[in-house]
Write a structure and sequence with these properties.
The chain has 226 residues and is an all-alpha fold. The chain is built from 8 helices and 2 strands; from the N terminus they run ββαααααααα.
């Protein structure tokens, strides 16, 4: 049975890294441990198949109406439905697997939803509402959720470095956009949501460093084997 030298837990199967700290495991490969909730997994799989069938069926019907019954000069809304449907099924599949961590899930959702919003804005005739309003609001909500998650669950709190890096990663976006958008010290109305996102980024970063500094130091020591 493989063991983690840092968390002191035993891990079955052929995985090479600890599920808690992501450090390399030591020891011989052992027998896999099957979870006692196999019926729940089967029910989740059946639920996903039913949802996927319904979503794809509606997409096919929308495509038939779009391309066969309507005028070809109009906007093909079925393509937009297809993109959102596939993205929704991908998110549902991840959620039903129940093998994810909070920060990574929130960050991936931010990237996915932001890309979908920008694509929808471009597909329907770009007006700028996606990058000027929706995306900075999503980034601000992500930063706040990331800050709250760091204090709610002990398993998340112990992984303080992930929260800090995620905060830095999301917080860099308003820096970059504001650098190209602000001209001669003037901030236009379109930049205000990004300015708010920048303020939230700095405040949450300071909060993580001040309140979770000890967890952060221990996490760095564990990651770097100090």
């Amino acid at each position: 049975m493989k063991t983690c030298p840092h968390c002191h837990i035993q891990v079955g199967g052929d995985t090479g890294y600890c599920p808690l700290c992501q450090n390399r495991l030591h020891g011989e490969q052992g027998s896999p441990w099957f979870p006692p909730t196999a019926p729940r997994i089967h029910r989740a799989s059946l639920f996903y198949k039913i949802v996927a069938f319904v979503v794809l069926t509606l997409t096919v019907v929308a495509g038939a109406i779009d391309f066969l019954l309507l005028d070809t000069a109009h906007l093909h809304f079925s393509l937009l439905i297809l993109v959102w449907g596939v993205a929704g099924l991908s998110v549902l599949r991840v959620l039903l697997r129940r093998r994810y961590n909070g920060p990574r899930l929130v960050f991936n959702l931010l990237l996915l939803v932001s890309a979908l919003i920008v694509f929808t804005d471009w597909f329907t005739g770009y007006t700028g509402y996606s990058l000027d309003l929706v995306v900075p609001i999503l980034c601000s909500v992500t930063l706040v959720c990331n800050f709250i998650f760091a204090f709610l669950h002990s398993r998340f709190t112990a992984n303080a470095l992930v929260y800090l890096l995620m905060n830095i990663g999301v917080g860099l976006l308003p820096y970059i956009l504001l650098f190209f958008r602000i001209d001669r010290g003037r901030i236009d109305g379109h930049s205000i949501p990004w300015v708010n996102c920048l303020i939230i980024s700095v405040v949450t970063f300071l909060g993580l460093v001040i309140f979770k500094g000890r967890d952060l130091r221990s996490e760095i020591a564990k990651r770097l084997h100090l």
